[in-house]
Design brief:
Keywords: ATP-binding, Hydrolase, Membrane, Nucleotide-binding, Transmembrane, Transmembrane helix. This is Calcium-transporting ATPase. GO terms for molecular function: ATP binding; ATP hydrolysis activity. It is built from 11 helices and 11 strands. It is an alpha+beta fold. Among the domains are: about 130 residues, Distorted Sandwich (Calcium-transporting ATPase, cytoplasmic transduction domain A); about 80 residues. Strands 1, 2, 3, 4, 5, 6 and 7 form a 7-stranded antiparallel sheet that branches. A 4-stranded antiparallel sheet has the order 8-9-10-11, with no helix packed on it. The longest helix has about 35 residues.
Length: about 375
């Protein structure tokens, strides 16, 4: 519980109070995805029907006394597990490094002095100082501000920064935090992850970690269950059909061989050999190698692949709908072309390419450009 502010003396929490609240509420960070162990990755791979097929074939060859074929098929299984494990561990290490680099620092007031601490150590009740260019470390109520505007596009998608105001003495901070949401001008609330683009202010933290607006989004995303990719569904369907066909042929060969030659053992072995020849033992290895190559090519384009089967899904995308503000774009305006008049001539300069085009004016309308000639004149 954070008590309402009764005055404007910004002394902040004491170091002892901050330490106690940190133990009580935990770090100001979102719960990260649990790392999958080697055993978990191996079980997920082995549970796929196409890998169960490899294992079954290897066991059958081993039972028949063909140790070489059995070791080859079982070796394929370990090879594929190794590729998946290497790719996933490499991606997780890269993501951890990015998290460490992007961990924000926070300027807080404790014991009456300004201190620069890690953003994850901010606690409820802390007084944070927000200045131009700072990322807000937690959801907070503004106690004092001057010309403060915040870019909340991370939460709202709106590219225009919003204007903030200071909380009034008669207003209840906890009630405001519970009722107000991101977006709109003249609100006394600032939110975790947003960016101060102008002015400065001092705010009292009301929520940290998963209790912030950003944390609520993260919590909702954790409820999303991963689905099988199209490739996984198709391979399961194909393996299922081929397995049924192979079993039917095996049964037919055993029955015909046994009835015609009265040798059921050799009939069973002949049917089993024919079924093994029909089953696609090479498909798992081919898929693993090509998907791993796809993940490697993505990494050359600065894209990390956490799950190898996703490579095929992303490659088959035809329409991709995303919120571009702050993700695909930087939410910043940039000059692309300059139109410069010199006497009766107009020159169009491309900023990306240092050359100009001479534009002639329309005889009927001097303000209208209707013809252009290439010119190598540089701005």
């Amino acid at each position: 519980m954070v008590a309402p502010i009764q005055n404007r003396q910004f002394n902040g929490l004491s170091s002892q109070e901050a330490s106690e609240r940190l133990k009580q509420h935990g770090y100001n960070e979102l719960p990260s995805t649990q790392h999958r162990t080697f055993l978990t990755i191996a079980l997920d791979i082995i549970q796929e029907p196409i890998f169960l097929l490899l294992i079954a074939c290897g066991v059958i060859y081993l039972f028949l006394g063909d140790a070489q074929e059995a070791l080859i098929l079982l070796g394929f299984v370990f090879f594929i597990i190794g590729i998946n494990l290497y790719q996933e561990q490499k991606t997780e290490r890269s993501l951890e490094a990015l998290r460490d680099l992007s961990s924000p620092r926070a300027l807080v007031i404790r014991d009456g002095e300004r201190q620069r601490i890690a953003g994850r150590e901010v606690v409820q009740g802390d007084l944070i100082v927000v200045e131009e260019g700072d990322r807000v470390p937690a959801d907070a109520i503004l106690l004092w501000s001057t010309h403060l505007t915040i870019d909340e596009s991370l939460l709202t998608g709106e590219s225009v920064p919003v204007r903030k105001r200071t909380i009034q003495l008669e207003e209840d901070p906890e009630k405001l935090s519970a009722t107000l949401r991101p977006g709109g001008d003249d609100l006394p609330t600032v939110y975790s992850g947003t960016l101060a683009v102008q002015g400065q202010g001092i705010a009292q933290v009301q929520a940290t970690g998963i209790g912030t607006e950003m944390g609520k989004i993260g919590k909702a995303l954790q409820t999303v269950e991963p689905e099988d990719t199209v490739l996984q569904k198709e391979t399961r369907r194909i393996v299922g059909k081929l397995t049924m066909i192979a079993l039917a042929i095996c049964a037919a060969v055993v029955v015909i061989y046994g009835l015609t030659r009265a040798d059921w053992l050799h009939g069973f072995l002949a049917g089993l050999a024919l079924a093994m020849a029909i089953l696609p033992n090479e498909i798992p290895v081919v898929l693993a190698i090509f998907l791993a190559l796809g993940a490697w090519r993505f990494s050359q384009k600065q894209v990390l692949t956490r799950r190898i089967p996703v490579v095929e899904t992303l490659g088959s995308v035809t329409v991709l709908c995303v919120d571009k503000t702050g993700t695909l774009t930087l939410n910043q305006m940039a000059v692309k072309q300059l139109l410069v008049y010199s006497g009766s001539n107009a020159y169009l300069y491309d900023v990306d390419a240092p050359r100009s085009r001479t534009l002639a004016r329309s005889p009927s309308s001097p303000d209208r450009v209707w013809h252009s000639n290439e010119s190598q004149r540089s701005l």
